[in-house]
UniProtKB/TrEMBL annotation, chain A:
Species classification: Bacteria, Pseudomonadati, Pseudomonadota, Alphaproteobacteria, Rhodobacterales
CDD domains: PBP1_SBP-like
Alphabetized UniProt keyword annotations: Amino-acid transport, Signal, Transport
Pfam families noted in UniProt: Peripla_BP_6
Family the UniProt entry places it in: Belongs to the leucine-binding protein family.
Name this protein carries in UniProt: Amino acid/amide ABC transporter substrate-binding protein, HAAT family
From TrEMBL, chain B:
GO biological-process terms attached to the record: amino acid transport
Keyword Transmembrane helix: yes
TM stretches of this protein: 12-35, 42-62, 68-87, 99-118, 149-168, 200-220, 232-258, 265-285
Pfam families on file: BPD_transp_2 (PF02653)
Lipid bilayer topology: Multi-pass membrane protein
Keywords assigned: Amino-acid transport, Cell membrane, Membrane, Transmembrane, Transmembrane helix, Transport
An example molecular function term from Gene Ontology annotations: transmembrane transporter activity
Compartments (UniProt record): Cell membrane
Protein name in the entry: Amino acid/amide ABC transporter membrane protein 1, HAAT family
Family per record: Belongs to the binding-protein-dependent transport system permease family. LivHM subfamily.
Main location: membrane
Amino acid sequence: MVRKTALGSVAAAALVAAPVMAQDAIDVTLGVLNDRSGIYADLSGEGSVIAAQMAVEDFMAEDKGLNVEILSADHQNKPDVASNIARQWYDQDGVDAILDVPTSSAALAVADITAEMGGAFINSGAGSTELTRGQCQPTTVHWTYDTAALAIGTGGAMTDADTSWFFLTADYAFGHSLEEETSRVVEEAGGEVVGTVRHPFPATDFSSFLLQAQGSGANVIGLANAGGDTVNAIKQASEFGITQAGQSLAALLMFVTDVHALGAQTAQGLVLTEAFYWDLNDATREWSARFEERHGSKPTMVHAGVYSGTMHYLRGVEATGSTDGETVVEWMKANPFDDPLFGQGYVREDGRAIHDMYLFEVKTPEESTGEWDLYNLLATIPAEEAFLPMEGGGCEFVEAAG
Amino acid sequence: MFELLGIPPQVLMGQLLLGLINGSFYAVLSLGLAVIFGMLNIINFSHGAQYMMGAFVAWMLLEYLGIGYWWALLLAPLVVGATGIVLEKLMLSRLYRLDHLYGLLLTFGIALIIQGLFRNYYGISGLPYQIPDALSGGQNLGFMFLPNYRGWVIVASVIVCFSTWFVIEKTPLGSYLRAATENPTLVGAFGINVPRMITLTYAFGVALAGFAGVLAAPIYSVNPNMGADLIIVVFAVVVIGGMGSIMGAIVTGFGLGIVEGLTRVFYPAGSAVVIFVIMAIVLMIKPEGLFGRSA
């Protein structure tokens, strides 16, 4: 109710005060809400704001009668902080859509508030499948990746009939869910999970846990953690000669910035799943070069997802002439995208963006020709196989409609 | 073969050794804190940031000047110590007459500023730093594979810790220091430059943090938050050992590393809190700490 009044008055003000503007100029305010100073600041942070700006410029929003403004804020990876900012943005700052939001707990909080306030939520940074399953909302689009896609990619690729896994799991919701998803993939492929150790989050020293993993004799050690924890675990696994002794490491969530932090010397041979890599094709290289010029480092898949998600959202606003969250998201689901960064794909009824995922292997120092030349493409996981099916996902509004 | 709570002895030996390695970091860091608190009565909350600076200086020396690990082990503590001198001269020296709390707040603020600056320039993901060639590889001890570098960490910390203890407790220089803490005016009357001695003591404590940072660089992620993650544990170690007690800091540092290592085997989820549980128990039973002199 409040929302409509606000929109109405904005429209009225625009009509009265700006006769020089195109008649149907629409004000769009986008809010990039993510981690600006903590462990996810490099993979999202300022880079996501730049990606959103680039989307607005590349879309040539002004020529199309869209008057776009971008806000940004730090949610410190805390759901309560994220909720407060989201509420204030929708209530007082006229925000129409919130972008990015890494950290699953924060993302789930923002998804609910967005639905309540009639905005749109284009998530790129968070991993929880819940966003499009048990806690789905008709105003949520989950663009880039989720824990199931990572499990399907990496877990599937590394498991044969008698492969055994041992998990090093970060002891909080995200780690548990990643471990659970991957265990399922492993067992479906005929593999076996022989053990798991839950480490505190965050942790610095992993040697003790790694030794337990080594002692288990498993073929694959799965790292169900993220960011600095993953980097430390891999660094120390290399030091303790774990990979040299024949066990493989599977980093279940790893971004190109993490691999960059490790360097090819330490990270070589790691297998991981991502939705985007800067060196995939001409279009990704061209965009990434422009991004690097402005940000100083190559984009992560989260940055790319913010760019593409914003693009598709703006198309929806242009086509529907509305900034009402549900209307625009409905348009986004009805119209497939052909995107320079994510290729062809579509947004499924439950809000899950369906596109190809990629299985990469980290290059050896000899193969790598530059500090960001880090991946060899092992396989492309076709869009239809990359994510969990919608059926049986427990998304209420989908099941009600179907 | 006997087993303890279902854990085979080889595994136990391995974990004891790993605990000792972590304890080495705790010992060197808490030693620096204890020296600074014992001599200056300053609770140096920027210790974690200075540890982080040690690791970063090592990385910078390699990246910008091509100076390798061994020189970094000497130079990085000097650089970090020099920043400590500036900090002590400009700010800390004004606080000695005030309550501990002021020093704590000042150094805490400085730690946040330093971390923020590094985060701004180098990001949060961290930077790669390789183990020096001479120490790569490892030894198979039968019960575990011990990387050479970890062995070196234990040796280096033990040497540094006991030399520091020896200088402060057993040499004339150390006796001046201890006397200056008791009664600066009187020691000054004997012709000893007390303010300069205090400045250098702070620089030394800070340099110890920088030294630990260089030791950590090849095995832990070199990132702006590396110190913030560790400093709270190190403070708990100092409290358990007894604020200002040199030997207490060393012994509890190594000891708690071992306790933490064992917790990782028996109850991994509890390994993050075990030190704080011990701290709470020690504070209840012996509030001055295990090695503290009751005031």
